[in-house]
Amino acid sequence: MCEVDLCGHATLATAHILFEELNVPEERLAFETKSGQLTVEKRADKLVLNFPARDPGPIEADPQLLRALGGPKPVEILAARDYVVRYETADQVRALTPDMEALKGVDRFGFIVTAPGIDCDFVSRFFAPAKGVPEDPVTGSAHSSLVPYWARLLGKTTLHARQLSRRGGELFCELTKDNRVEIGGYATLFLAGKIRI
Predict the structure, then answer these.
(1) Domains of the chain in sequence order
(2) How far is CA 52 from CA 8, 33, 45, 64, in A?
(3) Which residues partner with 47 through β-bridges?
(4) Do strands 111-116 and 83-86 pair parallel, antiparallel, or not at all (unpaired)?
(5) With contact defined as beta carbons under 8 Å apart, do 185 and 46 qualify?
(6) Model confidence over 10-35: pLDDT tens digits?
(7) Rounded to 5 degrees, what angle do the CA atoms 185, 133, 139 make?
(8) Cα dihedral: 53, 54, 58, 62 (round 10)
(9) What is the pLDDT of residues 144-178, one digit of tens each?
(10) What's the pTM value of the predicted model, to 2 decimals?
(11) All residues at 6 or more sequence positions from 74 whose CB lies less than 8 Å from its CB, including other chains
C-alpha cells in the first residue's frame, strides 16, 4: 500500500458526499492535491473530474513486462507514470491473466492494458500489484494517460471508454484544449456508518 499522487476513487467519492450528503450548493468543487488542483463538476446526472494529462511516450520496456502480462504480442508499449500496453482487440485485453507476483518486480507504478473498443472508443484494464491493487475496477488516473493517447490515435477529443475489470466501468472522457483530461461518470452511495474516536 502507498499514498498515490492522483486518485479518481477518492476524488469522486469525496465530491459525491459533499454534493449529495452534505448538500454543498456549488456546482464545482476544487481540491488541492499532490497533482495540483483537481476539480469535480456536476453536469446533469454525471460528476466530471478534471485531471492533468499524462501523455505516454515511447520507452524501452522492462524485459519482464511481457512475460508478466502474458497473452499475445502487443501492438505498442509506451509509458508515463504507468506502462501503457496496446493490444489489437478488446478480447485480448479481457483474456489477459497477468502473473501478479512477476508484475511486482517490473519497473513502473502500474500497468494499463488497452485496445480499440467494439461499442466504445477504447477499453482498458489496470494492474498495480506492488501497490496492493492486483486489478482496479475503474481507474481515473489511468485515463489521464489513455485519453491523450487515444485522442491522438483516433483524431478526436471526446471519447467513450470501458474498463473491462470483473466489475467493469464506463467513462465519458474529453481531452481539453488546455491539455487536461475530463472524466465523467456516476457515483452511488454504497455504505453509510459512524466512527467513534
Answers:
(1) 8-185 (3.10.310.10)
(2) 12, 11, 23, 29
(3) 42, 185
(4) parallel
(5) yes
(6) 777 777 787 788 888 888 888 887 77
(7) 20
(8) -160
(9) 999 999 999 999 999 999 999 999 999 999 999 99
(10) 0.89
(11) 66, 85, 86, 87, 113
